[in-house]
Here is the input.
Amino acid sequence: MKSEWFKDWFNTSEYLNVYKHRNEEDAESHISLILNYVQIKPNASILDMACGAGRHSIILARKNFNVTAVDLSENLLSVGKESAKKENLSINFVHSDIRKFNSNLKYDLVLNLFTSFGYFETDEENFSVLQKAYGFLKEGGFFILDYFNSEYIKKNLVEDSTEKIEDGDVIQKRKIENTRVIKKIIITKNNKLSEYEESVKMYTKSELVLELKKIGFEIHKTFGDFLGNNFDSLKSTRLILICKK
Here is the structure.
């Protein structure tokens, strides 16, 4: 396994094809749920850690929040910048690894959405992202961690799937190895084959809650999806933690 797989995969043009089902409607429901449960003022400052193509950042900027959006993928950032430009939205897009990103600003809300957590090799590196989120927040600010529910994945892992895309197919092969869920993505397009890999550390709810509390967060709310359903360790597909500094 290539340890820093995300550097290549997220910078490809194929990435957005594979995750095209993550659409704007999806992002709208995410932001609605978050804003229903966090108390932030109009014009509040928001940090989107690992913003991808900026779907959530754009919705927040439309609502007149001051948004900083950070990602390692220049390709995804360029898509986000183009979308913001079309709507004449002001978003501070920053090209950076979230482990290295620093800011003198303090934020009212920090987001880490769509399983942008657990990519790194060690617990220390993964948990340093939570520590950074805490450091970026104003006192009383909120941090949202949206992660998969590892208990659900263990019981419901789909090992193989194939999907049609324009001019080709996407084959995804998934397995659990030690404490990581590993996905091999094989894209055949115009008779050309490309292979990528994702590898994400699986943390349980209790492991994450313990670490977040150790850092200094209080757990404000926990959901099992973006419809606002309660978290159920066996049935919930997501683990959404709304944390307060």
